[in-house]
Structures are given as C-alpha cells and as structure tokens.
Structure prediction request, 475 residues.
Amino acid sequence: MTQELQEAPQESQQPREPQPESSQSKKKSKKGGRAQRGQRMGIPLRVALLFVTVIVAGVGLLASAVAIQQAMYEVAFSRVDEDLEWGLKGWARNEQLYQYDDRYVSVLPSDFFVYRLYKEGEYRVQNGYKEVSLPAMREIQFDGKAHTVKSQDGQTDWRVLAGTYEDSIIVIGKQVRNEQILLNKLVAGQIRIGIAVLFLIGVLGYFVIRRTLGPLRKVEETAKAIANGDLDRRAPVLPENTEVGALSHSMNVMLEQLQASIVELQSKETQMRRFLGDASHELRTPLTSVKGYAELYRSGATTDATMVMKKIEEEAARMSLLVEDLLSLTRSEEARFDEAPVDMLALGLSVVGSLRAAYPERSIEVDAKATDMPMVMGDTARLHQVLTNLIVNSLKHGGEEAKARLSIDTDDNHVILEVSDDGVGVQEADLPHIFERFYRADTSRTRATGGSGLGLAIVKTIVEAHQGAISVEST
Prediction:
C-alpha cells in the first residue's frame, strides 16, 4: 500500500474574527401617534448641493450687478458733472442770459436750468426744460460739489452744482432723466440675465450633481441589498482618487471581511455540529459498555470486581482517545497553523528515529530522492503528526512482517512524500473511503479493539490546510 502526499510551500491567510455588533435600544414615545424625540427631517445631498450652488451663483451675480451698476452710475453722472462745471464756469456767467429784453432772445441748453442770486436779493431763473418743475432749492448744498436733488413736485431728479461769481451765487442744474432711464434699463437687463444664468446653472448643476452622485446611489442600493441579506452584492468599482470611489473601495473591503467572517462562523458552526454529532455517535458504544458492566456488577451477576473495573477502565481509555482525536480533527479543520520554513528531510528523519525507538522490532527506512532542499512553509508539529500517523498506519495494518518506507522527493515547487509498505494491501472498494471519518477498512477492527477511525481523516485535513494533496493506491 502506498500513500502519497504533496506539500506546497504556500502561505495561508486566516480570516479575522468577527467583532460583535453593538446595539442600542430605542426609546419609544408613550403615545403611539407621536414621533420619537430627536428625529429630524434630513435634506437629500443632491438637493443641498444644488441649493448651495444656486445660492452662491446668485450672490456672485448680485455682487457683480451691484459693481457694474455703481460703475455705470459713476460714469454717467461724471459726464453730467463735467457739463455742470463747464456751464458754471462758462455760459452760466453770461449776463445776457438773465436779461428779459425783446430785442434779443437768450438761449439755454434744453436740459439745463440756471438760477442766479444777486447780493441785492434780486434773482433770475432760466429753465431750458420747461416741461419739468425746477429743483427744490432747500435741498441744494453749497459745498462746491454736484448733488442729486428732487424737483419741487418730487417726480424728477436734477443734478445740481452751486458756485459764486463776482457778487452773485449761481446754481446750475441738469435733469438726469436720460441717465436714469439708461441705469434702469441696465438693472432690468441684469435681472433678466441673472435669472437666465441662475436657471441655466440650476439645470446644469442638477444633471452634473445627479451624474456625479449616481455611483453613490448605487452604493446606497448595494447597502440596502446587503441589509436584506444579499451578501454577494458589491459596490461599483470606481477610481479611488474620487470620494465616491474611495467609499466604494472601503465598502467592498468591509464586505469581503464581513463575508469572510460569516463564512468562518458558519464553518465553525458546522464543525461544532459535526463534532457533537460524531462524538455522540461514537461515544454511545463505550458509554453503553460502561453502563452495562456497572449494571452487571450491581445486579450480582458477577462478583469479579477486578474484571469489571478493568473493562470500565478500557472503555474510559477508549473514550479518552476518541475525544482527543475528535478535538485534534476539529483543530486541524480550523487551519490555524504557525507557518515557518520546514525541512521535510530533517523532519522525516526525526519521525523515523522516534518510531524506530517505539517499534524496535519493525523495519522503517528513509529514501531521500530529492536533489534540492525539500523545504515547505508549514507547521512543524502538524507535519510531524502527518508523517507519524501515516507510518504508524502502515505498521499496524500492513501486517506484523511489513516493512515501512518513507520516500522524499521534489517536483517543481512541491515536496512529494511517499509512505509505502510491502504488507497487506487495501481492497479496491475501500480506497475511495480511506480518508473518511470513522471509516475502517479492516472489518475485524471493532470500536472496542481498534483505533478511533480518525487518524487518516486528520492527516487529510492537515495536508489540505497546507495547500497540499494526498492520495492512496494499493498494488
């Protein structure tokens, strides 16, 4: 019978233990119709972003409009002020402008009026724009600067400048109806343009924000699906240099760890159930035997207490061996090994040396075929257990005269270990089941006299946990 084992020097990654999820109890209101305290109505992110965008754009447009309006006001009225200064220093000083004589006609520019007060108290007024009432004289300031004042009827604005000439005071004004019309048209145009720009910004912002936050909505849908139990869902993969992409990546990593933790929990639960089922099934026979011997002695059917205690002790030892093997198998399935470089040739020589001391009358040989150093990444103690179980299995079930041999070879990135013997082989029908739990190819081996039936199952579990493979053949 030959048992071949392949070990691969690969590292295994262990899933992390899941952290318990904390829960907070929610306080309910005394009356069912009332909402809970502390609840607030939230504003969707896309609405908030669109609102802020429009508000900021509106403030910017308003500030720009105010600046433009102020600039246009200064430009328009600076020209009027220049006309007033020119008139005050020029034609407004002409005496003929204030004389009422039929021999000649004085002509005043159409948009102007002029008022001249002499020191004797006499005054003259000329108004070139007769359809509009004159400025309210009480509002005129004599500070040498032009000011805007209302007309006497309060319906028209005048730009007025006062000054002195010789023995009189001259007040010259110009109505600014055209300038005000221009400024009002500018305001109306700015309002129309601002509304159009805000509408365009709102529409474009809506589509840009909707497109930008589209992946975030997919992340939200993924989270809802996961909350409903679909643990296979994943967030869309996006560039990690974006906020949504970084969130998607972090969420996917979290989901992978969460799913690994759940799988690990399910695996542990399955292992525990299997352990309990196997233990209850296999312990039933020795427990029945112990109970039977105890009842036999108590009923008086036998008075040989020594024999009864010996049988009970044997069954207790059998149960102890069975429990230890079950625990060993369960620990092996957890695949929590201390990985380190292991020299399989040195390990094989160590195992064979120990078994030669335990079985001095048996022949155990080592055949080192490897030309390279047979190194693997693994747990030394577990691999020692594998070789020990395989060689002991060959010695026990190959027959009393069987010779065991351990061959060590390498193939590419694998180490090949072969345990063979020249004793009794295994029936072909038993080969597919040789590594199953509690399977016994030798029907003469009963639970009372044989092993636990878990040795080769433990070997297979440890080998597969090391990313290896194991097989058996009989010739």
